[in-house]
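pasting for the record
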Amino acid sequence: MIVKMEEYLQMFLNWFSMDNVLFSLFGQNVSSLEVTSTVCGILCILLAIRGKVANFWIGYIYNVVLFMLFYQTRAYSSMFLQPVSLAINFYGHYRWTHPKEEEKDHKDRLKVTVFNNGQRAVVCAIVLMFMFVWGYILSRVDVWFPSLFPAPARMPYFDAFILGTVLMAQYLSAQKKLDCWFCWMVANCCNIILCYRLGLNLMTLVYALYIVLAVGGFFTWLRMYRKQHWLDLRKQVEEKWKNAKN
């Protein structure tokens, strides 16, 4: 019995190893860890597009799987993203399920809102500042902590830009801002380049699919926003008409 438990445990651990190859794609090996992250990522996005709170539960698992994936491929910035991403997921989970009264849509859920151009400029500035600061740290992490990171990070500034964009996209998603989908599109385009350079061919195709899903998510949330905006206007007119009659 103990031997079987050890075997099952070893099989479980092997599943989350880049060395556990399931098949080859375009001459590159694809691991079970990549397949797991793919399934979790697609489920998470599909649920988010439909505005389902369940996307956060899948997102928690996705964070853990990606942490292991990027650690084993030495994409340290993307690896460091996952604990922060997990915290943002918790925050978004709370925001979606506990909206303020003025933030509720017609179904008592957090409604979709949008940024103005000034706010979008601030978002871009924050991401760029983050890229330069975090990129420098990544370029030195193997020097400062050689025991933890024996090899230098790959494409540190580019990796840092992806990290900043993804964090911003997640934060905007947690706030249910329509603008989040533009951030996701930029981040996924950059991730295609990064994964191709890292030899993660399956993830390259997955991020291409994520771009398509992000476009779908944008138009789905846009319909939600327009519908709620029309309902809010109608409610305001009805209240004004009621007050005028009184």
